[in-house]
Amino acid sequence: MMISYLVPVVLVLMLLAASIRILPEYKRGVVFFLGRFQAVKGPGLIIVIPGIQKMEVVDLRVITMDVPEQDVISQDNVTVKVNAVLYFRVVDPEKAIIQVEHFVSATSQLAQTTLRSVLGKHDLDEMLSERDKLNDDIQEIIDASAEGWGIKVANVEIKHVDLDESMIRAIARQAEAERERRAKVIHAEGELQASKKLVEAANVMSENPAALQLRYLQTMNDMSNKNASTIVVPLPIDLMEAFRHMAKGGGD
How far apart are CA 62 and CA 64, in angstroms? Predict the structure, then answer.
C-alpha cells in the first residue's frame, strides 16, 4: 500500500523540481507554449510545465566581444590588419530569440563585415588620426542593423591598426620629409622677415646719418671683441662722404 502511494508522490515532486526555474535580476526567460511565443518572464521564480512549455534564458548584461583581426585594404590601397572590441546588450529578449538564431554569433559576423566595409572607405591617415570618428560610424551602422534583433550597441573601439614593416618605413620617411619641408619653410619665412627689417633699418639710417655712424662704430666694437687675427682699420664715415662728393665733381 505504501509503495502505491509513494510512486505518485515521487513523480509529483520530480515534476515540480523540473518545473521550477529561478532567474537572477540580470536574466529574462522567453517562454514558449506548445511552440508558440507566450511571454517574457523574470526575474524571480518561474514555473515551466515540462513537455508543454519551453523557456530560453537571455542575459541582459553588457557583452564584451573581441572582433577578430581583419585584413582591410584602405582607399589608398594600403593593406592593414585591424581588430576591435564591441560592447552590446540585449534590450528585447523576444526579438533576440525569435528574430535571429544565435544572436551573439550574428552580431560578431555583422561587426566583422562592418569593420571591413567602413575602414575600406578611408585612407590610412584617416584610420590613424580619426579613430574616434570611425568608431562612431561603425557603431551607428551595427546598431541600426542589430536593432531588429533586439540588440543595442553601446560602444565600438578600434584597438590596433597593424602595418607591414615596409609601410612603417615608408611612413617614417614621409614624416622625415615633412619635418624637413617645415624646417625649410620656417627658415624661408625667417629670411623674409629679416629682409623686411633690414629694409626698414636702412630707411631709418638713410634719414639720419648719425644713426649710420653709430651702427658703424658698434660693428667695429663687435669685431674687436672676437679673437681673430684680422686687422681692421676704421675709416671715418665723413671721409667716405668727401670722396663720394669729389667723385661726383670729377664726373661733372
Answer: 7
Closest CA to 63 of 149, 127, 124, 174: 149
Q: Which of 162, 179, 56 is nearest to 119 (CA)?
A: 162
User: Residue 84 and residue 17: Cα distance in Å, rounded?
Assistant: 44
CA–CA distance, 63 with 56 (Å, rounded to integer): 18
d(CA 124, CA 164): 13
Buried b (16+ CB within 10 A) or exposed e, 83-110: bbebebbbebbbbbbeebeebeebbeeb
> Are residues 53 and 123 located together in one domain of the fold?
no
Number of structural domains (the chain) is 2
Query: Which of 163, 195, 223 finishes a domain?
Result: 163
Q: With left for phi above 0 and alpha for psi between -120 and 50, is residue 160 left, alpha or beta?
A: beta
Dist CA 113 CA 8 (whole Å): 56
Residue 92 lies in a domain: yes
Q: What is the pLDDT of residues 23-65, one digit of tens each?
A: 999 999 999 999 899 999 989 888 888 888 999 999 999 999 9
Tell me the residue range of the domain where 70 lies.
62-163
165-206 tens-digit pLDDT: 766 676 677 777 888 888 889 988 988 888 888 788 777 767
**The three three-digit cell numbers of residue 101, written as one number:** 538564431
| DSSP SS3 for 5 | helix
